[in-house]
Amino acid sequence: MAFETIAYSVDDGIARITLNRPERLNAINAQLVSDLRDAVAAANDDQSVRVIVL
Which InterPro entries does the entry mention (predicted)? Predict the structure, then answer.
């Protein structure tokens, strides 16, 4: 799954969500909120994920 404003990865049951808007100092906008919501939903749907690190 590709995101515009975050980096998302899963390794050994750990989902990592990293804000990736350095040009705006990671300020929250509508796209970032949408990407976060989708990433959390993806982690929730993945049975291998045990924890989310933001």
Answer: ClpP/crotonase-like_dom_sf, Enoyl-CoA_hydra/iso, Enoyl-CoA_Hydratase/Isomerase
Contacts of 39 (CB under 8 A, 6+ apart): 1, 3, 6, 8, 15, 17
> What CATH number belongs to 6-53?
3.30.300.220
3-state SS, 33-46, equals: HHHHHHHHHHHHHC
* pLDDT for res 28: 98
Find the angle CA(45)-CA(7)-CA(4) to the nearest 5 degrees.
95
Ranges of each domain in the chain: 6-53
Q: Which residues in the chain show pLDDT less than 50?
A: none
Share of the chain above pLDDT 90, in %: 98
